[in-house]
Fold these 4 entries.
Entry 1:
Amino acid sequence: MTASGHPGWKKILYSLSLSLVITNIFIVAKSHSDTPNQPDKNHNTSAVLNAIIEQVSLSDNIKGRFEQRKYIHILPQPLLSKGVFQLDKKTGLVWQINTPVSSRIVFDSAGIHQRQKGQAGWEISNERPGVAMIGELMRAALSYDWALLENYFFINGSINSSINDISETQGGKQQWALTLTPKETTLQKTIKYISLAGEQTLTSLILFEVNNDRTEITFDML
């Protein structure tokens, strides 16, 4: 039987790709300075970010469903996964993958922890240089913490009304999009840029990697 014909091949590939993504991010974080750069001042960007904050739904507890597609340039099809997440400012971020494999990743004050099929997996302590940054950046994107994101990324964005959907325009909600480009060379070694898009909530996040792989995540907030 060929590898592509193996019934569990996609699950194996997905598990491998998930491990590679976490490993790549950790390698970058490990070499990253604990003291981030001071954010650059851009009045146009600030106006866009302020306008987004005025219309998004802010909460100390954010939860929803996600659908993730991981595009690896050596594979003909993306690796699809689905699950749910919950972000609590006090307890951290829980990223629960339900299909094609069950995997639970927790980002909290202690570090990053993974459980699979109810069994403890790997964990990385926040005491290791840069690990805390990983959880911070994920939480910042989901909670619209622009100040933290500006420490690590140049941010460019736009916001406009949808002329194709009358109900959107009448409701006063505008579509917005942001592009985050890494400031430091350590992040630039892995991340080309990140795209965020949404309206009243964040609806998509796309991470473009230097090696031409990319991760697309769509969100359905609850």
Note: The chain has six helices and eleven strands.
Entry 2:
Amino acid sequence: MNQKTLAMISAAVVCLAAALLLTLGCRNQRRPAGMGPAAGGVTPKQDHLTLALDYLSRLDEVDPQEGMIRTAYHLNRWIEDHEDEVPWQQSPMLNGLPRELRGIGPLAELPKREFTTEDVMFLREVSWMQSISERVSQQTTELGLDDWLDQVEQSRGEPHAYELAVAARLFDWTVRNIQLDELLPYPTASAGSAEEGDSNTPRATSPLMEAKPRPGYTAFTWQTLLFGRGDAWQRARVFIQLARQQQIDVVMLALDDARQLPHPRPWLPAVLIDDQLYLFDAELGMPIPGPGGIGVATLEQVREDKDLLSNLDAGSSYPYAPAKADLDEVVALIDASPGFLSQRMKLVDAQTATGQQLVLAVDPSGLAERVRQCEGISDVQLWHVPYETWVFRKARGPREQEDPELIRRLMLDEWIFAGLTPMVQGRQLQFRGRFENNGQKKGAKAYYLESRVPDAEIEQIETSPEVQYRMGISRGRLNDQQWQAKLLAQKSMVTRIKRNVSYWMALIHYETGNYEAAMNWLKTRTLEAAADGPWTGGARYNLSRVYEQMGDLEQARDVLLLDDSPQKHGNLLRARFLRKKLEAQGANTADVD
């Protein structure tokens, strides 16, 4: 790692607060001002939408703040000159949201024909999703569904089977790339607050308004993708948005269980194709197997045969709770964050329909009408989580001042992504599929290698003035306690960056079919380098998948049985599947003998 890279990492620590404002998308970032034609470098006759999309595609390469401001500027110039009207009305389904969610700022701005840097952040998120989904949908890695998909094609037609195959690939990518975090318990309302489900009573002291973490809403979807980790609901949201960019509709099914909060309680994402809902469990990390353990089950099938769900028990310690649920009261939840509902995004969506295929608009009412045609759906609602995330992030500000542990987690999980460090550049290029160098332009792998500080230097951060100088760490007027805290923070961040890029290098090698290299990065540079590191769960799962691709099913199974992550239940089921596959191979060998 060169001195410039070390200095950039150090600068990320020094400038944490300022960079965080951009990263979190603060509400005070309004329309960019003072950006006349000279500043934008264009004449009024030029195509501002094309220029905006060009800046958007290059946000991974330039200063994020400047790039976002220029993108918003060109979008505003375009919309000023854009006289065509696209039919738009605010979704009536928003009226079903609780009052505390209906009043959030982004919903008040839905009719506005004015772009802010927050809109550009939304466009960047969609652009990442589009790049990933386009690449993954064209991959040919065997998922064990080919024979079943052939049967689906014969019975349902080629378009039906194709969409299902693409959805399966996108789900598989999501499970491999978004490590599962524990799904937090859903807290009850605080004393004096409105009861759960009372949508008309203000809830100033609700867990949400108090910024108490609970399932799904602690991170925006772009953060889940960027950080590479999230709980089952956050993982499901990434899958939903990847599928959306391939124009495949996915809803979150929920069970109306009076014994559990919230009502209804999200269960799993379901892919809507024609009149069927195919079930993919984001918490297990696997599709729900169909009859005979073949293919992907539909909601209709599990309603007819409850054993399809009870078969997902992994011994008495890991029962599959939805198997005992009432499947006559299944609610479909639509993930439609404010960006997908705004008038300005619908205008851009209409203009890009024949160019860069960014899906920027969602019609919840139209989707709800289609979902209601499916057997077993009792109601369709907007999923609250996308809106709760906005409330949580706003309410979290005051709490950060009084919760040092929250600040520590914030620093490690968010601040290391502030600015345009080599790690951040590599991560964004990974989303774009630009893994290798292209001429003078570095690829994701080069940036990741550049981000790995040698262990010997990391160990000397607290004691070596020479290492501190190379990394650009200066003491200034700090007292001894403050100086040691700064050095410790630097050491923690550099270590975390190294763990991150080592794991992500492995995922790149897996995606490109270089399984030997993937095994090395997962086994040696991730698991052995930090047995209790931040990526232990994901590394074990992906190492098992590597062994599968290499034909070593016994090793693949052994790795899964060692797992103790939040995905353990699903990994035990996968280990059971591999055992049956090994037994079948043994039987076939015996028949040949």
Note: Residues 480-511 form the longest helix (32 residues).
Entry 3:
Amino acid sequence: MGSTMDSIFMVMEFIDNDLKRVIDTKQRPYCESETRCLMFQLLQGMTYMHSNWVIHRDLKTSNLLVNNKGELKICDFGLARQFGSPLKPYTPLVVTLWYRAPELLLGAKEYSTAVDMWSVGCIMAELLAKEPLFNGQTEREQIDKIFTTLGTPEEKIWPGYCNLPGAKVVCIQQPYNKLRERFPVISFSGRPTLSEAGFDLLNRLLTYDPERRISAEEALRHPWFSEVSQPTFPSHNVMDRNVRRRVMKNPDPLEQLKAHSRGNYMGNCGIYV
């Protein structure tokens, strides 16, 4: 294309928002059913990637796109690469710090799809809490924050942990997993709540031992996605562009409510279009 016919252009689907922007502009965190809907779509994408021997290696909320139908897309494959069996050494300097798996932070050079699944767990927690779960500013601070919340790992729960290069300089000695305190079943303090099944999935995504960390395919079959409360995606998170224009012209809450009520309910995932 072009005047000299020597240029190539790729026309891609337009997506209205990335997930980080949506989270930052929402007045409240995603509720559990909304999180379930987004997580199901994310896990479908990861299952497809991993079954085709591709690791993303940079999953984070700003690399997930959400359109006005509540459909989630994975983007930015700049650090993605194919992997094989047996595993080969790769650089551990991948994945944005807040979403980086502990084996990478501790210097592991052989890793697989489990590093993506840790990132998925961090994203799930961020959807529920409206803030990153582990927001360290350095690698040392990041691993300290992980150990403070999940407890310092031991060889019996993570075989091979003591042989990782970074394990020799770990200072935090915290024997207890405090993740449930951050996501209780019932909260009177404003903390995000999470059902037993939801917490089990989150806990399995944030398992230290990458060999025991839940896979994307297994996660899709988790009982959390079969709970009575069906996955939903609210119309007020990502609005149709025409609706947004009307709301911007008239920010009256009643007008917003009327705009939402004109949406057509699609049943599956409770998406409005």
Note: The longest strand covers residues 64-66.
Entry 4:
Amino acid sequence: MEDEYKPMKQGKLVEEDGRKTLLTGDNKTLAAENTTILLWSLCNGQRTIDEIRQEMTDKLNIKKDLITTELISKSIQELKNIQLIK
């Protein structure tokens, strides 16, 4: 992915009985962990991959080297594959 790519979330977050689920445009669901939901929520079409990485390390209060750009890119690609990010 190029440096200037700014992923944009699609679908919506649904919370039912205390469980959070991501819902795609064609009503498929993904039961997601909190870190996946955080990643998805940060994809607002304005942040680059590096900016998303920085936000995640800040919000999770972890060292920057624990979340690599490659990991973020791979996770975003997986969410793109199921139409939760464009």
Note: The longest strand covers residues 12-16.
